[in-house]
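Troubleshooting entry. The earlier prediction with iron/sulfur cluster gave an output that would not parse, so I re-checked the input for stray whitespace and re-submitted. Clean input:
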Amino acid sequence: MSASEDSKGVANTGPFDFDKLDKDFKFEISREPGGENIMYCFACGTCAGICPVGDKNEDFDPRRLIRLAILGFREEVLSSPAIWLCSTCYSCTVRCPQDVKITALMAAIQTISSRDGYAHDSYRMFIDMAMKHKFILEVSEFENSKRAKLGCPEITADPAETVKLIEHTKALDIIKRKPKSEGAKK
Amino acid sequence: MKAAAFLGCNVSIRRFEYEAAARAVAKKLDIEFVDSNDFGCCGYGAGPIDHDTYLAMAARNICVAEDMGVDLMMVFCSACSGNLTKVNKLLQENEEERKHINELLKSVGREFKGTVKIKHFTRFLAEDIGLERLKKEIVHPLEGVRIASHYGCHYIKPPEIFDHFEDPIHPHSMDDLVAVAGATPVNYPNKRQCCAGAIIAVSEDTSVKIVTEKLENLEKTGVDALAVHCPFCHVMYDEYQKHESVKLEKPIPVLFLPQILGLAMGCDPKKELGIKKKVAKKLLGGSE
Ligand code: SF4
Ligand code: SF4
């Protein structure tokens, strides 16, 4: 089932077959920077209760995502548009009784998802912009003349150093990746 | 007092009235900002793509500050501040990670040494300059002006990266600074609510709902202005007031904290602080 068919952000996992779950997924997450504490979660729901996004958008429920990840719903979690909804507010992180560090954990899940070809377009664009302008916005004469009026110095945007650095990382490869076929997704 | 001024994308390109006001306030306090065109984006958006890219982009900026020979890197955007502070701490404490990122940085002739401290300008004002010193510069106290503060998230959270300088559940530094300016700090429901700027490109609808709630709470409470200290938060509360689903009786002026301090310090509202005439007049009204 694809996540887009589901009203709750993540594919409806229904009654499930334990044998089909990826029991290594929780270890995979815990090896990713930020995901180290995933297994501490005892599903209390404090994060879901405080989450400002979950409050306004029922597709997003951090406890549910963590639960599904621990159970091993790898593909469902990684392909879910819901994982991109965390606004990184840290409200959950400062209140979680088990120190799960949920905000960092969400980022870890996003990173794995990107490696599998599911990166959200806005982050692919982020890398594109950084490669073009070193900033995520373009600087032109216009901005500089307005800056000068307020006594701010001129800014230049030579991206050479940023480009060279990014070229030495895996980012350019990752933003080109697409999800494997629907068959592989299952 | 000398500090490298790290502006980042949104302050330098979209919200330079914040930068101008910070420069004006810094001048009054004998803080010297050193600029460099070697700074770039802090790397915030690279995290969800690749952790190494994210660390390397942030570290490169920290190296620029280190190479300028300063001890302090001043940051104005809360997202940049949270990001750079986190990476600085990680690379200072974790030798293995530092070696790994330094390998990448070699490609651009940089090396992370871990010699600078990173601070958000608000934290620096509250912690290093101090309220007593700030009070001495106030010439036009904004008496009777009701100002609510939006702390945002990355200014204080996660608290361990910021040396626990402020309780994330009961923060008060912004309100203290508003009070120094002579204005009345105002509390309002759900004050800690996030601006949701981080997901504006993922679900604008969700972000707008979150923003609307805060704006409505502010209107119900009755405030003359909202103080922010992050360009993202500013965009969310200022530009989104024009969104069709936000229905306010009258607009709520959204000002950067240094604009408020600058007004009270007697800086030129238009030329130095980038504040609209009408808004400046309203805020200064009480003291004229
Ligand atoms: S608050 Fe922590 S322990 Fe509770 S459900 Fe969320 S992650 Fe798990
Ligand atoms: S950090 Fe993300 S998951 Fe946690 S409360 Fe904020 S929006 Fe929700």
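This one parsed fine. Chain A touches chain B through 66 residues (CB under 8 Å).
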